[in-house]
Amino acid sequence: MKIEQKENIQKIFGIIKSKINSCKNNEDKKKTIMNFADKIIESKDEYLCFEFAKEYGASLGIDNLYKISDIILKSKNPYLCTFFPKYFKLKNFNKFVKVIKNSPVFYILNFLRTFPNFNANYFAEEILQKGNVEQNIDYVYEFDIDDIIPHSIKIAKEGTAKQNLNYIIGIDSIFETYPEEAISKNVENIISSGDANIDFNYVMMFKPQKDLEKHAKVIADSDDLLLNYLACNNWPDQDPLELAMFTKVIHNHTKAELENRLIFRLRILDKDSRRKIISKYFDIKTEKSNQEFENESEKD
Predict the structure, then answer these.
(1) From the CB of residue 31, how many other CB atoms can be counted at a distance below 10 Å?
(2) Which candidate, 9, 11, 33, places its Cα nearest to that of 20?
(3) Fewest C-beta in 10 Å: which of 9, 38, 166, 185?
(4) pLDDT, tens digit, for every residue of 78-90?
(5) For 91, which DSSP code?
(6) How far apart are CA 20 and CA 24, in angstroms?
(7) Burial bucket for residue 15 (CB in 10 Å: 0-12, 13-18, 19+)
């Protein structure tokens, strides 16, 4: 509703209330309301009709309510078509639903939140075809629908790696069991994105048994020293070939770089603990003095 329209409605309501307050009895009040109802319905202003019905609906009678509902339906205003049937339980509810079905997805989701007992599957195709990634995620998360797989595929095709990871986390927390196909494309999205951080987080959270080598390659290809160190120590199946990928990356860096990550990223401040870790990947028996080693770490 535009500001000018809102102000105009407020002025009209001021006049109506003034007239009603001047009435001597309830019969006069009802007659005044009905007189204004005729004028407002004649205006065919859907917002004015809606606000008038909200304020004086108890006095309007069923015929006038249907007249107002027809004006709102003809406007195809999805906001009004959501909230008018919320306030007034008329027999033409399905007509409002049809308007919502052809409305933007934002209003479809709003309608479903307003009527939580409505069958959400009725809008599945509209959400799939017109909805963006986040709207499809919300649809799956919030409503009881029969088949989430088409929405999962859409999210995989159009979403970021982070959106797909968050989607998988949500699916895992909402559903006790779900078919593998429900997230398989989303996992593929994470792998193909090449985002090592997202991939690492997925593997650490869900400990998958499938495609671990593909996940390992994403992490190794990133050349991220910290991620590869953490992967090497926490990889689910500890497969030697996958561990070798991570170890190779670690060896591509220096001892000082590794110690830097241990100190400043993992907060391992005890020297002996750090040296014990480093000795797993580097020969430190013939290295320089401890002081020189620490100086190299500080320069990194």
Answers:
(1) 13
(2) 33
(3) 38
(4) 999 999 999 999 9
(5) T
(6) 9
(7) exposed
What tokens were used for 211? 């495609």
In whole angstroms, how far apart are CA 6 and each of 10, 49, 73, 86?
Answer: 6, 12, 20, 21
At 145, list the tokens.
């629908």
Distance (Å, whole) CA 140 – CA 151: 7
Q: Pick the closest to residue 220 from 193, 203, 196 (CA basis).
A: 196
Task: Show the tokens assigned to 169.
Answer: 């986390």
Q: Which residue has the tokens 């996958």?
A: 242
* DSSP state string for 11-67: HHHHHHHHHHHT-SSHHHHHHHHHHHHHHHHHHT-HHHHHHHHHHHHHHH-HHHHHH
Interatomic CA distance for residues 300 and 261, integer angstroms: 10
Q: In the chain, which stretches have pLDDT less than 50?
A: 286-291
Tokens of 206: 């869900």
Q: pLDDT tens for residues 1-24? A: 667 777 788 888 888 888 888 887
Is this model's pTM higher than 0.90 or not?
no
Give the Cα separation of 190 and 210 in Å (integer). 14
Q: What local confidence, expressed as pLDDT, does residue 7 receive?
A: 77
Nearest partner of 202 among 102, 132, 99, 210, judged by Cα? 210
